Amino acid sequence: MGKQTDHGPSIKDDETYEALRDEGYSKEKAAKIANTKNPGKKGGGAKPYEERTMKELYEQAKTVGISGRSTMKKKALIKALRAN
């Protein structure tokens, strides 16, 4: 079992929060997911970013308003989408 960190009362599920941060999610996005009820049961219909094409990633980045997307490579787009 890994080290358990207590992030205080603002984070309801420390283990989920840490796992999401390790995957590259921003603090804000990881906190939102970790604080939802049954986070693994919501959504789930979308492919992981790594399985999407550059065109799909670009269109998603365009939809959420990520600037500089036209010069980004796949890994940079994924990182930007996860941080958004």
From TrEMBL:
Domain of life, source organism: Bacteria
Disordered: annotated span: 1-49
GO biological process annotation, one example: DNA-templated transcription termination
Protein name as catalogued: Rho termination factor
Gene3D superfamilies given in the database record: 1.10.720.10
Taxonomic lineage from the root: Bacteria, Pseudomonadati, Bacteroidota, Flavobacteriia, Flavobacteriales
Biased composition (Basic and acidic residues): 1-31
InterPro entries: DUF7218, Rho-like_N, Rho_N_sf
Domain annotation Rho termination factor-like N-terminal: ranges: 50-81
Species in which this protein is naturally found: Subsaximicrobium wynnwilliamsii
Cross-referenced Pfam families: DUF7218, Rho_N
SUPFAM superfamilies, sorted: Rho N-terminal domain-like
